[in-house]
Write a structure and sequence with these properties.
The protein has helices at 8-18, 22-45, 53-58, 102-107, 185-220; strands spanning 60-63, 73-76, 84-85, 92-97, 133-143, 146-150, 169-171, 177-179, 181-182. It contains five helices and nine strands.
Amino acid sequence: MRVAFKLTELEALADRLGHLTPDGFTVDAINQVLDSTYDLLRTTMLSGINLTDDYLQRSMQVERATESKPEASITTFGGKAYLTNLSHYGAMQETRAVNWTNEAIQAAGHKLGDWPGWTRRKGNAPLGIEPNRKAAGKSVEVVRGRRKSMNPVFSIPGKRDKEGNLILFSRNAADKVQAKTGPSPYQLARHAIPLIYDNVADDLRDAVIDAAEREFTKALK
């Protein structure tokens, strides 16, 4: 009795499998997880925080994986240039009524120009202060739904952030003007990363395994 094995197809299969490399299927898997991670990270960063997604993305950079460099990264920039002024947190000018309105001064028989401090009753249009009212600090909403008044805090006409909001300032112990900042994107990212790390690791593992199975299935056909 003679038994013969035809090895041509087996050799062809071995050749196809031999050409499979991890980089060939992991790049797509990495970039797939990169996209979902970028969305999840920003959602987690903004959880309860009153910033816009557009503002976050201007402080972040995404680098996709390639076959020559099968690595992907999400970078959140820090440093002085990326500090977030409280103006981005829904800052509003707070005002209160003056003790003597312009009308009351005139009704008492006085001329506005002769009344001490009458100019303060003219309001301040660039700061959104109407006549007969004066500044009473600012209010911001860092945590959504929790508006907080801040005083003494002020704005300088013409000093605006990139979204067009008046920048908020205060004076320190040395009487120097300094910008008032709130949670910045890199700080929010530092807090969010540990919260999503396990989910991202599981997603990457599953994506690579699924991609490998698809490639082997193609090679076996």
